[in-house]
Design a protein that fits this description.
The chain has 241 residues and is an alpha+beta fold. It has seven helices and twelve strands. It is globular, with a radius of gyration of 19 Å.
Length: 241
């Protein structure tokens, strides 16, 4: 199987043009600037028409821990936890032509942000898909594929060594969203070391250090303006074009 080239014109849904026309007619389409929060509601279906959406999560468990620390008078630990609690955990991307939904599950809070400028998102009720039965099947197939990828993600995060989690995380992202270049494949969107650290349970400083080690071993390299790339022979799973 070959790694697909993900562009703004990539469309896995056969009836995509009909959907986009319908969304515009019913005011169900909106464009966002980079890092702008995308308002979402549980129970709705969202489709990325253009650009890329970044999913992040935060935990509300911090409030209970804060109460315990206040009762114990541990101000130093409370301050450290407050700093950590302000960080968002990066949960992955949703590329052009792909669906996503936000599940409300206490004590976790999930949010979505436009990762690049001119990211366009369509929203629908699930019942709207009754008008396009074939489209509904393709949406469910896309969610099934995303579920399989999340299992690989969880397997990667279960690795004991941080450097293994880092390499596995980068490889999974590029396998799913990468575009070809002369030296292999690269992730077309920038990720900060802090965002990577939040995804693999590490820190920005550790990620920076380990990225340097992976570059020395030629397991990754930097393409163009700071974009992460890996050699073609590092691809262990390739999405069918």
């Amino acid at each position: 199987m070959l790694l697909s080239t993900h562009t703004d014109n990539a469309r896995p849904f056969l009836t995509w043009q009909r959907i986009t026309d319908w969304a515009q007619e019913h005011y169900r389409s909106r464009s966002f600037n980079k890092d702008e929060r995308i308002p979402t509601r549980a129970g709705l279906l969202y489709l990325v028409e253009r650009g890329s959406v970044r999913l992040v999560g935060t935990s509300q468990l911090l409030s209970e821990a804060e109460t315990d620390l206040k009762n114990d008078g541990d101000d130093e630990s409370l301050g450290n936890m407050a700093l950590a609690g302000n960080e968002e955990a990066f949960l992955g991307f949703v590329g052009a032509g792909q669906p996503f939904e936000i599940v409300a599950q206490s004590p976790f809070s999930l949010q979505s942000f436009a990762h690049v400028d001119n990211t366009t998102v369509i929203w629908l009720y699930w019942s709207d898909l009754d008008n396009w039965p074939h489209f509904r099947r393709e949406v469910l197939d896309a969610f099934r594929y995303q579920h399989q990828r999340k299992l690989l993600w969880l397997s990667t995060l279960g690795q004991r060594r941080t450097i293994d989690r880092l390499l596995g995380f980068v490889t999974l992202l590029i396998e799913e969203f990468g575009e070809p270049c002369e030296s292999g494949y690269y992730l077309p969107w920038a990720l900060t070391h802090a965002q990577i650290g939040s995804a693999i349970g590490s820190t920005r400083v550790t990620v920076t250090r380990l990225m340097g080690k992976l570059r020395q071993r030629k397991l990754i390299h930097i393409y163009k303006d700071g974009l992460i790339a890996i050699p073609a022979n590092q691809m262990t799973f390739r999405q069918e074009a």
